[in-house]
Amino acid sequence: MRMVFRWFGEGNDTVSLAHIRQIPGVEGIVWALHDVPAGEEWPMDKIMEVKQAADAAGLHIQVVESVNIHEDIKLGLPSRDVYIENYKKTIVKLAQVGVKVICYNFMPIFDWLRTDMFKEMSDGSTALFFEKARITNIDPFDLVRQISENTELTMPGWEPERLQHLTKLFEAYKGVTEEHLWENARYFLNEIIPVAEANGIKMAIHPDDPPFSIFGLPRIITSQDNLRRYLALHDSPSNGLTLCSGSLGANPANDIVSMIHEFADRIPFTHIRNVKVYENGDFIETSHRTQDGSVDIEGIVQAYHQEGFTGFCRPDHGRHIFDEQCRPGYGLYDRALGIMYLWGLWDAYSKQASQQPADRKVSQA
Ligand code: DNO
To answer: Which of 125, 145, 161, 172 could hold 319 in an S-S bridge, CB 3.0 to 4.6 Å?
Structure first.
């Protein structure tokens, strides 16, 4: 398992590369050009700026998250071909600077979505929170109307200045079903996977977060069956997964340990984090520790260990602790604690595996 840490770039992150370098066992950053709009080709000079900064800090840049996909590709519009060509050019450039894994997602309109970024927890920390009733079975056009009439109603991602843009996108997705998304994903994969393969890059789709429909939009990367179907759309070692335990874990029916065993050789990248899911479907992002949430983090690390996992791993969203001011979910402290928990489990499983049964008997005697 190779540990990496997400970094949003100079001037765009409260965490410094120097601090990332001090977290035990972290070898590289997970990065992106966040100011390049989806669909545009990434400029080499900006890629090189990140590479030079990472090199100077003793960290590598082998994992990119994300090269985002233009909505026209997900919608299957004729204009998609231009954006797909740009995507291919970006893949080639990233390979030239040593990138090995590109994470991306296929979620319509929204990436991960929460209703509260700083929900207070009983220990005084705050964390990302999802209130299901505010998102599912809600007519997005009603929500736009309500928010424009009462600006105090706003929700992350629904800021008043985005409402017009959101309305247009929701219009565009009217009538787009899950089956359309599957077809548009296949078209995209058939175009880009051969380019990734030829350039030694593994594409790694991130699950939908949360893993169910929101605002009536179709979502397909949600379950073990759907992950299997996605991998089969274009069968290649370059068509892989970013197996994210927090995203998939928001649906308690998802058995992540079973997914790890089934898809082990198609997981170049994993996000490991915990969520506590309540009976009404709400969830909050707790510490990484198994006991604090609903996801069996120990079982997950053990499954990776049993599979001899050599891919990249990052902790995911953390709580906001020790009074840290940071991007929601992306502080230094709780994610660093998360890493130490993951290493603790990993090292213990390694030790256990290296002890022959005979040795164990001796030490027990
Ligand atoms: C949240 C992340 C997502 C993820 C994208 C992948 O922390 O896991 O924003 O980066 O969905 O494309």
So the answer is: 125
Q: Nearest-CA neighbor of 216 among 251, 249, 170?
A: 170
User: How much is the mean pLDDT over the chain?
Assistant: 95
List % helix, strand, coil for the chain (3-state, nearest 5): 45, 15, 40
Nearest Cα neighbor of 88 from 226, 199, 250 is 199
**Residue 130, pLDDT score:** 96
Spell out the domains of the chain, with CATH numbers in brackets. Answer: 2-364 (3.20.20.150)
Q: Confirm or reject: Cβ of 273 under 6 Å from ligand 1.
A: no
109 near 166, Cβ under 8 Å? yes
State the pLDDT at residue 365.
47
Whether 284 and 128 have beta carbons less than 8 Å apart is answered as yes
Phi-psi label, residue 164: left if phi above 0, alpha if psi -120 to 50, beta otherwise = alpha
Indicate which atom in ligand 1 lies nearest the CA of residue 271. Answer: 8
Ligand 1 contacts CB of residue 208 (under 6 A): no
Q: How many helices (H) and strands (E) does the chain have?
A: 13, 12
Quote the CA–CA distance of 24 and 132 in Å, as a whole number. 36
Distance CA 9, CA 31 (A): 7
> Are 83 and 246 contacting, i.e. CB atoms less than 8 angstroms apart?
no
Question: Is ligand 1 within 6 A of the CB of residue 316?
Answer: yes
Structure tokens, 343: 């290493």
Structure tokens given for 57: 């800090």
For residue 235, report the distance from its CA to the centre of ligand 1, in Å.
23
For a substitution probing ligand 1, which of 209, 272, 330 has the most ligand atoms within 8 Å of its CB? 209
Structure tokens at 51: 């590479």
pTM, two decimal places: 0.95
Whole-number Å distance between alpha carbons of 314 and 300: 13
